[in-house]
Amino acid sequence: MAAPPWPAPMTGLMDSTRTALGRHFLWGRLSALGLSLALLAFLADQSFKWWMLHELDIAASQPIAITPFFSLVLAWNNGVSYGWFAQNDGLGQLILIILSLLAAAGLWVWLTRTLSPLTAASLGLIIGGALGNALDRMLHGAVADFFLFHAFGLSWYIFNIADIAIVAGVLLLIYESFAENRRQGK
After folding, report:
1. Any bridge partners for residue 65, and if so which?
2. I want to staple 45 with a disulfide (CB 3.0 to 4.6 A). Which of 34, 57, 120, 162 is the partner?
3. Is 155 domain-assigned?
4. Does residue 163 carry a catalytic annotation?
5. In the structure, what pLDDT confidence band is assigned to residue 157 with cuts at 50, 70 and 90?
6. Is 61 helix (H, G, I), strand (E, B) or coil?
7. Which domain holds residue 42?
8. Spatial separation of the C-alpha atoms in residues 182 and 180, rounded to whole Å
């Protein structure tokens, strides 16, 4: 039987990115879980920031005392955690954006290869948080932070939902590391 006169169907980009294990290079067994949590963290962060900045207008109404030790405020963070490496110029912010995107891409590659649901969930939270803060830098030139714990004249640093997602993800990775070591008897 002769070959048909039309070309064979294209295999597509996803087929060309398969690894020797039969997986897609950028999509693994638990990628949907990680992506779902990344989207959840990102959307929760960005929705809350939008509400605080545009609906509540926190800039005009701050501070808002929720409890004697917790307030909502607005602080623009030009750096990373605790304001370290503050970058007040466009080039510095661009470097922080690029670093955030590279970190998220590297974590995504790790996520596509993990076989642990807890690792996938942890990485998804970290990726979503990193992308939420990166978008702030792109839109505002700084990250909007709102949550302030304070007591007895002392204040802890101001943070946002993206930071919570990142810290939760890191803590879950640490927990899993210790749990895995215990399982292996180390």
Report:
1. 71
2. 162
3. yes
4. yes
5. confident
6. helix
7. 36-183
8. 5
Q: Whole-angstrom Cα distance, residue 149 to residue 98?
A: 30
Neighbours of 120 (CB within 10 A): 25
Residue type, 14: M
In 10 A of CB 137, how many CB atoms?
A: 19
For 28, counting Cβ atoms within 10 Å of its Cβ (0-12 exposed, 13-18 middle, 19+ buried), the class is buried
The position carrying tokens 């702030």 is 136
- In the set 15, 89, 136, 145, the catalytic residue is 145
The pTM assigned to this predicted structure is 0.82
Inside any domain, residue 69? yes
Which tens digits make up the pLDDT trace of 69-127?
999 999 999 876 555 555 666 787 788 899 999 999 999 999 999 999 999 999 999 99
- 29: in domain: no
User: E-strand spans in the chain?
Assistant: 64-67, 70-77, 143-151, 154-155
Residues in the chain: 186
In a domain, 18, yes or no: no
User: What's the distance, Cα to Cα, between the start and end of the chain in Å?
Assistant: 63
Query: Catalytic: which of 45, 89, 136, 163?
Result: 163
The structure tokens 């607005």 sit at 74
The DSSP 8-state label assigned to residue 70 in this structure reads E
Number of domains observed in the structure of the chain: 1
